[in-house]
Amino acid sequence: MKTLLNILHFGIIGAGIGFIFTTLSLVIMKAENASVKELICWTVTSFLIGIITRIMYTERLKLLLATLIHFVLTFGVVTVTCTLCGYGESIIEVIKNMLPAFLIIYVIVYLAVFFISKSNEKEINKLLSK
């Protein structure tokens, strides 16, 4: 039961954050013809990404492996959503259009988390050595 509640917790947080960003994106892009289907698809996608993000908190996985798993799963879910919403002629076109941005974002986030973690490790080691 505790695991199920934890999964739901991550999913609900993901859906909440995703709904805000989806709404902001639609407003910024002046997507006046956005459908309820798109809002529902992106909310469900955000819920799933929230659950996928739980992987990043698994201490059994190294940061790089957790990031790679997160990338593959998130990219897959977003690709399916974009295809369902009709954002490309085919799934291959969606993949070609999204892959460069996804790679850049994941490299930047990975490096930021990596260097912050190293900095925290140094600080903890310094405090422990005192």
Low-pLDDT regions: none
In sequence order, what are the helices and strands, one letter per element? HHHH
| Beta fraction | under 5%
The biggest beta sheet reads: none
Count of distinct strands = 0
Q: What is the SS-derived class? A: mainly alpha
Round the mean pLDDT to the nearest integer and report it: 90
How far is it from the N-terminal to the C-terminal residue, by CA?
42 Å
Rg is 18 Å
**Helix content range of the residues, please?**
over 70%
Task: Record keyword descriptors for this entry.
130 residues; mainly alpha
Task: Report on this structure.
With 130 residues, the protein is mainly α. 82% of the residues lie in helices and 0% in strands. It contains 4 helices and no strands. The protein has helices spanning 2-28, 36-53, 63-84, 91-129. Helix 2 packs antiparallel against helix 3 (63-84). The longest helix has 39 residues, at 91-129. It is globular, with a radius of gyration of 18 Å. The termini are far apart. 14% of the residues are buried.
